[in-house]
Amino acid sequence: MAATLSDESAAGPPDPAGEPAVEQPGFAVSEPAGELTDSAAIRESFRQPEQFAVLYDRYATSLHRYAGRRVGDEVADDLVAATFLAAFRGRQRYDLARASARPWLFGILTKEIARRHRTEKARLRALERAWFDQPVDGLADQVAADVSAQAARGQLAAALTRLSAAERAVLLLIAWSDLSYDETAQALSIPVGTVRSRLSRARRKVGAALGGTNPAAVTEERA
Amino acid sequence: MNDLTSLRDLGDTLDQELRGPSPQLRHRVLTGIGQQRARIAGRQPWSARRRLAVTGVLAMALAAALLAASTLRLWGASPAASAQAAQILHLAAVAAQRQPALTTGPSQFIYVQSVETAATLTGSSDGRITSVHLSTNLREIWNSVSGTRDGLLREQPRSGTAPGQPTGPWQTTSLAVCSHSWTTPVAGAALTPPGRCVPQPAVPTGLPTSIQAMVAYLYRNSHG
Question: pTM, whole model, 2 decimals?
Answer without folding.
Answer: 0.50
